[in-house]
Amino acid sequence: MSAGENQPGGRRQRPGRRRDAAGRERNRPTSRSYTQSAPSERTRRADPARLVAFEVLRAVSDEDAYANLVLPGRIRQHRLDRRDAAFATELAYGALRSQGTYDAILSRCVDRPLDQLDPAVLDALRLGTHQLMAMRVPPHAALDQTVGLARAVIGAGPASLINAVLRKVSANDLAGWTAGLIPDGADPVAAAAVAQSHPEWIVRALRQALAGHGRSVEEIERLLEADNSAPVVNLIALPGLGDLQEAFDAGAQPGELVKDSATFSGGDVGRLESVRKGTTRVQDAGSQLVARALADADVEADGPERWLDLCAGPGGKAALLGALAAGRGATLLANEPAAHRAELVRQALRPVDHRVWDVRTGDGRDLGRLEPEGFDRVMVDAPCTGLGALRRRPESRWRRRPADVAQLAPLQRELLDSAIAAVKPGGLVAYVTCSPHIAETTAVVTDALRRHPEMELQDSAAALDAVSLPGKLEAGKAEGDGSTAQLWPHIHGTDAMFLSLLRKKSTVPGKD
Predict the structure, then answer these.
(1) Is residue 359 helix, strand or coil?
(2) Among 190, 206, 227, where does a domain finish?
(3) d(CA 451, CA 52)
(4) Which of 39, 130, 422, 443 is geometrically suited to a Cys-Cys bond with 95, CB 3.0 to 4.6 A?
(5) Is 62 known as a binding-site position?
(6) Mean pLDDT, to the nearest integer, of 485-510?
(7) Mean pLDDT, rounded, for 184-205
C-alpha cells in the first residue's frame, strides 16, 4: 500500500509520517539527523581498537588511572594485532594529549557546558574529534565507528547526540577551528595553550624553565610540540644480565644516546621474553643517563661501596643501579615508602643477584638519621609534578595544578637533606626530577647548598656527557666549577630530566 492510500480507520497517511501497528502516527522525520545510513547499514558494534581507546579514557576519567599502565593490558585483553594496537594507542594518547583543544572545539558544538555531559559521552566525543582532526581516518568512518561504539557501550540516545555533535565538528579542520578559537591579539601564552593543548600555567612554567636553564623562551613552541609527539619506546638491557638481540630481531633499532639501549616500535613490548624476564626493561633514555651518571662519577670510597636509591618506586632506576652495582662489587639499598610500590621495586630487581640488593619499605626522610654517612652514592629521584614526562603521561597535564609545586617543595627539600646526611664524606648525591620547573630543580639545589656548606656542586652536564654515546648528547660543560644539567624532549629526545650531582667534602686530611 502506498503512502497516500487508505489506512485502517479511513484516514490517509500524510507524507513523511508513519503509523505504528495501532494506527498512531510516529513523529519521526524521513531525514535522519543522526546518520545518513539506513538502519540496517548503521554500525551497531564497537570496533575493538576504538573500544580499547574508549576503555582507557574511561579508566583515566573514572579511576585516575595512568594511560600508559592501563593500555597494554587492554590491548592484550582484546587481543589486538600489531596494527590495531598502534591505532588504539594513537587514538587514546592523542585524545588525552589534545583534550584541551578538543574540549574548546566541542564547547562550540554542544548546547550545554561540557561538564553537564555524561563523562562517557564526553570521552566518546573526544575520541571522535581526534579521529576527525588528527588521524588519517575518513570523516564518514570516524563518525560511523564512533557512533557505533557509543550505541554499543553507552546507548542509542547518547549515540544520536554524539552523531549530531561530531557532524558539527567535521565542518572544519583543526587549523580552521584553532584559528577561530584564538582571537586576534591574544596573549601568546593563552594562544599557545589552545594551539598546543597545554594548561596556561604549564606553558608559563615551561617558558620560565627554558630561561632559567639557559635556553631561549622562543623554543617554547618546539617544546610544546615535542610534548604532543608520540614518544618512542626506549629499551635497556641490564648490564651483565640481558641483551637486546631479541628486540633487534623484532625490529628494534640501536639507541642513539646510551649504550646497551634500543628504540622499539614493534607493538606490544610486553611480548618480548627478555622484557617479561626483566633483563630488558622499558626506560626512557634520560632516566638511563642520570642513573649511569651517578654510578660512573668518581667518589672517594674506602672499601666496597654502598649505594642508596632513596625514592625507588616503581623500580626502573633501581634495577639499572642494582645491575651496575653488581658488576662493581657494590651493594644497593632501595627505599620506597609505599608497600605496593616497594613490591614493584622487588620485582624490578629480581633479575639482579639477590645478595647485591635489599628493599626497605619506609620514609626516605628517616634514612639520614638512621644511617648517617652510610652510603657512597645516593639517588634522590624526588617526587615532582612530572612536567618533564607529559608526552608519556598525557593525562598529567590536566590533573596537575600550580598548587602542586608548592605542596611538593618541602618534601623535595627534606628528602635531599636526608640524602646529604646519609652520604659519606667524598661521596655523591644525585638530585633528580622528571620536571624542568625551576621551583623543583635549581631552586631546591641552591637552597640545599646554602644550608649545607659541606656540599659542593659537581659538573653534572659533563657527567651526563661522559655516560652518553660519543658526540650524541653534548649537554655542555660548565663555565665554572659546577653545573646542573637539564635534558629536553625537543633537544635530546628524552623526558625533561634534571640532574644535579652534589659531593660531600672529604674530611680526610690533605683533601678538599
Answers:
(1) strand
(2) 227
(3) 51
(4) 130
(5) no
(6) 89
(7) 95
